[in-house]
Amino acid sequence: MQVLISFCNSNNIEQSNLLLLNVFTNEKKWIKIKNKNNGFTGIAQDDDFIYALYQSAEPGIVIFEKKTLRIVLEKELPELKDPHSVLTNKDKIYIVSTGTDQVLEYCFSKENKEIIFKKVLWFPKKSSQQKDSYHINSIFIENKDIFISAFGLKKNERWSSAKNGFIFNISTNKEIIDSIYHPHSIIAKNKKIYYCESTSKSVKENHKTIIKLDSGYTRGLEIKERYLFLGTSSGRKNSKSSGLINNPADIGELVSDCRLLMFRKSFFGKYKKIKEFDFSQEHEEIYDIRIIY
């Protein structure tokens, strides 16, 4: 089973931040692109291609052939500011421009290998669309409904004060779940919503906690059949008593933790960790995870 992992917010622009990992043989293939970057955030895929967002002063997208990993397009997208997540649906690509509180719609021609900006698909009603006020960070489609997750508004200058995160169906304009402390990595499946509540070091199914870790800012989630893959990132601890881990961008003691955890669901419906891969020596943060094949 091959899993693609993106690592974000790297200080080393020479470092490779996209990894294809065989979780059974432990074989690793680090993928590099031409543009110097500070890491990758969102990953998406369809039958033919893999799509990955890269971080830089001029962020953009790189598109690979799925079978060969050959790069077919590497392009800066000037409409984007701090992109976090990407979604594909037929010839359309939807990208979360976190720095402007927007979901942007693009058209991708598989034949000509061209991507064209179409429109701003959605933004929160009260957003100025000029800065990151809500921290929209993941996007997912189930049937025809598109869902996003966001931290919600801060109470002060720190993201640790944004405690009323939410998951929103932008197709129906309805909030699905609220009061989440830093949601990430949503998956909608069989009328259930799976997501990371990063600060509480957990994974939830709707309102139910299905995985609770002792350490790590949980972000990056993938589920296939009985397997669940979860990423952990280094985070900030500013209170020993709360047990919470805050966003790495916040203040506080940095707690190093960068792992890929592999779980298998038992016949009783509980997830048991069966394997883990530690990347803490080279990286601090995982952003996204996708099972490729």
Describe this structure in words.
The structure is a single chain. It contains no helices and 26 strands. It is mostly beta strands and 293 residues long. The protein has a single domain, classed as YVTN repeat-like/Quinoprotein amine dehydrogenase (Methylamine Dehydrogenase, Chain H). The strands form seven sheets. A four-stranded antiparallel sheet has the order 3-2-1-26, with no helix packed on it. The protein has a four-stranded antiparallel sheet with strand order 4-5-6-7, with no helix packed on it. A four-stranded antiparallel sheet has the order 8-9-10-11, with no helix packed on it. The chain is globular. It starts with a strand and ends with a strand.
List the helices and strands and how they pair.
Layout: E1 2-7, E2 18-22, E3 28-31, E4 39-45, E5 49-55, E6 60-65, E7 71-76, E8 83-89, E9 92-97, E10 102-109, E11 114-122, E12 136-142, E13 145-150, E14 165-169, E15 174-180, E16 183-189, E17 192-197, E18 202-205, E19 208-212, E20 217-224, E21 227-233, E22 235-237, E23 253-255, E24 259-265, E25 271-278, E26 286-291
Antiparallel strand pairs: 1-2, 1-26, 2-3, 4-5, 5-6, 6-7, 8-9, 9-10, 10-11, 12-13, 13-14, 14-15, 16-17, 17-18, 18-19, 20-21, 21-24, 22-23, 24-25
User: Could you give a short account of the major beta sheet?
Assistant: 4 strands, antiparallel
The CATH topology label is Methylamine Dehydrogenase, Chain H
Roughly how many Å is the radius of gyration? 18 Å
Broad structural category: mainly beta
The CATH H-level homologous superfamily: YVTN repeat-like/Quinoprotein amine dehydrogenase
Average pLDDT reading: 94
Assembly annotation: single chain
Number of helices: 0
End-to-end Cα distance, whole Å, is 6 Å
The general outline is: globular
Strand percent estimate: over 45%
Order of helices and strands: EEEEEEEEEEEEEEEEEEEEEEEEEE
Number of strands: 26
CATH class: Mainly Beta
Major sheet: arrangement of strands: 3-2-1-26
Helix content: under 10%
Using the 3D structure, state the CATH architecture: 7 Propeller
- Domain count: the total is 1
Uncertain runs are none
